[in-house]
Amino acid sequence: MKSSTRALLALLVLQAVLISAAVAESNGVGASAKKACCSFCNSWSGVYTCDDLLTKCAATCQNCAAVPTDKGTRYRCRDFLPAGCPCKAN
């Protein structure tokens, strides 16, 4: 009887984890939560970065750099974009 209870508990926990991951991905918390458009895109040897200056970095940005400007400090997300730069014409 205890083994079936443990198995049921394990299945419920696994189901909760899978549902949480699916909800997080659909809410933009996962890897798809990148900035939708990039105005200033750079590429070097096939690696793309978006050089847009932002008032704050997105929560998904792992490499945020502070950039001093005449309007105060702005931020630039220095993460690599493996699929190229979205919305850039060139």
From TrEMBL:
Q: Where is the Bowman-Birk serine protease inhibitors family domain?
A: 37-87
GO MF terms held by the record: serine-type endopeptidase inhibitor activity
Name the domain of life: Eukaryota
Give the signal sequence positions. 1-24
Give the matching InterPro entries. Bowman-Birk_prot_inh (IPR035995), Prot_inh_BBI (IPR000877), WIP1 (IPR044167)
Which UniProt keywords are present, listed alphabetically? Disulfide bond, Protease inhibitor, Signal
Q: Read off the SUPFAM superfamilies from this record.
A: Bowman-Birk inhibitor, BBI (SSF57247)
Cellular component GO terms, alphabetical: extracellular region
Which PANTHER family does this entry report, sorted A to Z? BOWMAN-BIRK TYPE WOUND-INDUCED PROTEINASE INHIBITOR WIP1, BOWMAN_BIRK DOMAIN-CONTAINING PROTEIN-RELATED
Its recorded name reads: Bowman-Birk type wound-induced proteinase inhibitor WIP1-like
Q: Which organism is it from?
A: Panicum miliaceum (Proso millet)
